[in-house]
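Progress narrative, Year 2. Work on NADH:ubiquinone reductase (non-electrogenic) from Flavobacterium ichthyis advanced from sequence curation to structure prediction during this period.
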Amino acid sequence: MRTKKRIIIAGAGFAGLTLAEDLENTDYEIYLFDQNNYHQFQPLMYQVATARLEPASISFPLRKVFQGSKNVKIRIAEILGVNPIEKYIDTSIGQFQYDYLVLAHGCKTNYFGNKELEKRAFPMKSVPESIQLRNRILQTFEDAVTTPPDNLQYILNFVIVGAGPTGVELAGALAEMKKNILPKDYPDKDFSKLTIYLLEGSPHVLNAMSEESKKVSRKYLEDLGVIVKTSTIVENYDGHTVSLKDGQKIEAKNVIWAAGVIGNSIEGIPETAIARGNRITVNRFNEIVDTQDIFAIGDIAYMTTPKYVNGHPQLAAVANQQAQLLAKNFKAMLKNKPRKEYEYKDKGSMATIGKRKAVVDLPSFSFQGRFAWFTWMFVHLMLILSVKNKLSIFITWAYSYFSNDSTLRVLIKPVTRKVKPLKEER
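Result:
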């Protein structure tokens, strides 16, 4: 028989991990579920994809994080559904009862129902996807060396769809590779035809940031040679040609999709709680509407407040703040004290476009350029979990800053095993 109330946390992203850490060594029994045995730092995935950081630099083993914990248990499994009546979850390793369930299972890439794009465009929402994209980028450069001139432009066109922080940062990183790295790696090949397109459906890049940051970030991109097309909708991609809504076409071997996310579905949550973007509607305590003892936090949670009538932005800062308050409310419940309602405290947003090029929006003012770039680096280093990873990333960034190079361009292909059939015995 259990003597402590059990909280099951589904997902070890920013929200789930923060909640588990804040409830560590309390009078709750915590089960943290995730499909991977590590937490992945999504803001720096584009640097893995462009061979600036190793995957291990932005991945943190969950069991290492909770080595000193007496009440947090890690389970690596896929959550298949929820039974809100009998209060248990179905997983790929069995059923688990809960007293409280917290859904923090996040979002996936949104292709807006286009199966052709889903099949052929590259996403970048996880470490394996970033590694896959890195291999594709590096292999493209190798292929370009031996490609006949009449087919070369198709090989050297990179199309990035979505000009939010991920798309902007990825476009800037690829542009710097073209300028600083490819001439040294391939002295016998002219990569001047390498063209990076950044396509955005809204009128601006970094549409959620200030007017000055939108303007400056676009100038930075265009100064690096990126072709920026705003108010541009992608209709299809057949593996060779990107078709735009206005009738234009771009031939490209590589299309990278960073145009939006949609909530991961989970069986058992009432339809009345599902909101736009497949997010789950919650109240100001992060309780899912029309359920009991089930909560949602992070990107999957849809909460409306007077300040955010269309829900909160899907940012790590929102996820962390929701998790921190929910942890405090769980602790208050143990002492029969009143809970507090959630209100997002916007501390600002930022994006980097390249070396000494970044934009930062704070609640009271904005700034751009070199100081913004150092601010971006400092904030992201502080958010990294372990001291070892902070040091590793800092050394890598410092080397890259002074050399305009990195040493991580290793093309690691998966092994395909050929098994010979056994000869029949005679």
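The chain is about 30% helix and 25% strand. The longest helix spans residues 165-185.
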